[in-house]
Design goal:
Length: about 725
């Protein structure tokens, strides 16, 4: 038997992501993570022990960005695709605005997986938005969940607070509370967290409550040593450069020369996004206050890609404005270059080599630096580095012996380190050579991909262990729902279970015999806890789906995974407290016990009275409330979000799991079942039904059974030919 090679799904949702000519530095969401996930996917897919890699991102159709990001599928190689799933509309949105739309992304990804008929063996989320998505999918399909944070919310919160921002302001702008909550949830679910450094585990993940739950593995990212080759290769006649590389060098030199009065001086190079955390102003201050350094070298700061500073977001606009003000304050004209753009594919490697040929220095003065990929790129070309004494640079300088670490908050320390390297030619040569050699020893994509493949192979081995040892079930609910042809959804009280209950055991036996084709679910007004209790009391096995609290909640499988996607969908324009307040003076309403109340359900007792129902409608409509009102059994009044009900929940399940509505079989007995009994699903009203359902007799999709309760459900299954007279599944529906 040929062993199946792993199918890996990676997720990097925000940002502008494509396989070629990446727009790194365009904004805060197109940083090093974009390059990392592309290179990881590219090198993983090139391995013989990996079957296929799909990298999922967000589909964006926005005239402000390239049409490349609107392609639903980008085929990169025979084993690597970029899959773009739309959520939150089609416009480009910064990552903080995507949180409300991630459950939509999950639902559409499930649909994509079902259409492809290919369940992943591993899911890997990058950054907390994609981590949230990957974690949910891992739970659905029972596969290992790998996570890479790239940056962490608690670290960012600490830094912003130390800079004087208020908690309320931080949360409003960065949605930091939601992000941290998601990160805690991710850590509680992840099978493996991949980090770039040991410092990241101890100092950053160490801030989280769930820090001890997942396993961690340090796997430093690699660089493309074919692209970032040593500067002296260009000086050798036998090394032919491509025309693109020649053009890139000519353009870079022309761009730099228009800024500098003395362009032949050594070059201090900084390359980063225009973000306050990158401490560009601290670098310019250090250079501006050191006249000796100004005499020795020029400074070039490539701070992202821009057209008009006024059109940029606040953080980026503030940084760039401060750069210009500092240039003027220290009179750095002719010494400081602030180019408006650079091409990552060809011009960035050339930038490093130009600076190395001029015997300059690359500097990363960021206040915090989780890793520092640009430090490796610069070192691979032979350019010595000066970097912040934080996070990743500690490991890089220790492994590569290629530069000096500094305190980024001390300008004099920054300038002193740069001067030391430029002024000492022997030290410059030592750092240059060591960087070239040791980057190739420690930081290549081939070694990164090899370690990654070993780790996911180990996870897959764990996942296919014995049932006693495995961490995730082999019959995960997602796999099951994707494979089903039909789904039976039944009310519980007086339908599945009731006084005439003699046929329940027979119905359960039928469902067990046909479980490979027919799924089983319940839809009830009961809360989830009450639902579980009554099913256990009557020895009903855990359903595949539970629609509880009159359609306001959905749960999956035996472990009752809560459907956050459904909750997000129905939360739109729901004003629970406002509705309760508006109805508080109606003395004909009695607020039900707290145990029956839910976030998306308000429950009352009420006598049957059409005029009183009209008063409720009038009051709520007059105050512009959006709601769904359900009255049943002549006494129970439930008010739900306008998007919620048993019937709408069934339509949601049909959409999400791509089971046609005509393949749903629904059964009920009372008024709160009426909406789900209407429409395309095949419906049966059991023989002991309430008079509230008499109006359904004219519907051709509703069958009124003679038998009561479970016997009526069996009668309906045979009426619709879902099973034959031998109680066996038939496709003749």
């Amino acid at each position: 038997m040929v062993e199946k090679l792993p199918y890996v799904q990676m997720f990097s949702i925000h940002g502008l992501l494509r396989a070629e000519n990446m727009e790194l530095g365009r904004d805060a969401d197109t940083g090093g993570q974009i390059n990392y996930v592309i290179e990881l996917a590219r090198h993983m897919s090139a391995r013989e022990d990996i079957g296929r890699v799909d990298l999922f991102t967000r589909l964006i159709a926005d005239k402000r960005v390239s049409s490349d990001y609107a392609r639903a599928i980008e085929v990169v190689s025979d084993k690597f695709r970029i899959i773009r799933i739309q959520c939150g509309g089609r416009r480009y949105l910064r990552k903080e605005l995507l949180w409300p739309h991630l459950d939509e992304y999950i639902d559409k990804t499930v649909k994509f997986i079902k259409r492809e008929q290919a369940i992943p063996d591993i899911v890997h989320g990058h950054y907390p938005d994609a981590g949230y998505v990957a974690g949910q999918l891992a739970g659905f399909f029972g596969v290992p969940f790998v996570y890479t944070g790239h940056s962490l919310g608690r670290s960012k919160l600490r830094k912003l607070l130390s800079e004087g921002m208020r908690q309320e302001e931080i949360d409003k702008k960065y949605k930091i509370d939601r992000r941290i909550k998601a990160e805690e949830q991710i850590l509680s679910r992840a099978d493996l967290v991949i980090t770039s450094t040991r410092h990241e585990i101890e100092q950053q993940y160490g801030l989280y409550h769930n820090k001890d739950v997942p396993a961690f593995k340090v796997v430093p990212p690699g660089i493309d040593i074919e692209k970032f080759y040593p500067f002296y290769h260009d000086l050798l006649e036998e090394n032919e450069r491509s025309e693109n590389a020649r053009y890139a060098q000519a353009r870079i030199l022309k761009e730099l020369n228009r800024f500098f009065m003395q362009p032949d001086k050594p070059l201090i190079l900084a390359l980063c996004r225009p973000d306050k955390r990158k401490n560009i102003s601290g670098l310019i201050q250090a250079y501006g206050e050191d006249l000796e350094l100004q005499t020795m070298a020029n400074l070039a700061v490539f701070a992202g890609i821009r057209k008009d500073i006024d059109d940029m977001q606040d953080n980026e606009r503030d940084v760039l404005t401060q750069m210009l003000l500092l240039m003027d304050k220290y009179d750095l004209y002719g010494k400081l270059a602030i180019p408006k753009r650079h091409d990552f594919e060809y011009e960035v490697p050339v930038l490093y080599r130009v600076a190395a040929e001029k015997r300059g220095v690359f500097i990363n003065p960021a206040l915090t630096e989780p890793f520092g990929l640009t430090l490796l790129e610069a070192s691979a070309t032979g350019l010595p580095i000066v970097a912040t004494n934080d996070g990743g640079p500690n490991d890089i300088v220790r492994n590569c012996e290629n530069g000096i670490l500094i305190d980024p908050t001390r300008p004099m320390e920054i300038s002193k380190a740069v001067r030391k390297i430029i002024a000492n030619s022997q030290l410059w040569e030592q750092y240059s050579k060591s960087g070239i050699m040791k980057v190739r020893e420690h930081y290549t994509w081939a070694s990164h991909a090899e370690t990654y493949a070993i780790e996911i192979g180990r996870l897959m081995g764990d996942n296919h262990a014995s049932d006693m040892d495995t961490a995730v079930p082999s019959d995960a609910i997602g796999r099951r729902l994707i494979a089903l042809d039909h789904l039976l959804i039944t009310d519980i009280d007086n339908t599945l279970i009731g006084e005439d209950n003699g046929r329940l055991e027979a119905l359960l036996a039928i469902l067990e015999r046909n479980k490979q084709r027919i799924g089983f679910g319940v839809a009830t007004g009961r809360t989830i806890d009450a639902t579980v209790r009554i099913l256990e009391r009557h020895h009903v096995p855990p359903p595949d789906v539970i629609i509880s609290s009159v359609g306001s909640e959905i749960y999956y499988g035996a472990d009752r995974q809560f459907s956050q996607g459904w909750a997000t969908h129905i939360a739109h324009q729901w004003q629970r407290d406002k509705i309760i307040e508006l109805l508080s003076d109606f003395d004909f309403l009695t607020y039900q016990e707290d145990a029956t109340q839910r976030d998306f359900k308000i429950s009352y007792y009420m006598d049957p009275d059409k005029e009183q129902l009209a008063k409720i409608h009038n009051r709520l409509l007059r105050h512009k409330c959006r709601y769904n009102l359900i009255f049943s059994h002549d006494q129970y009044l439930d008010i739900l979000p306008y998007r919620a009900s048993k019937g709408k929940a069934i339509r949601y399940l049909s959409y999400k799991w791509e089971i046609p509505l005509g393949h749903f079989f629904v059964s009920g007995d009372s008024g709160n079942d009426e909406e789900m009994l209407r429409g395309e699903p095949r419906a049966v009203v059991v023989g002991n039904y309430s008079h509230e359902l008499e109006g359904l007799r004219e519907s051709r999709h509703v069958y009124f059974a003679q038998a009561s309760c479970a016997g009526g459900i069996i009668e309906g299954l045979k009426h619709y030919r879902l099973i034959d007279d031998n109680d066996t599944y038939t496709e003749d529906v």
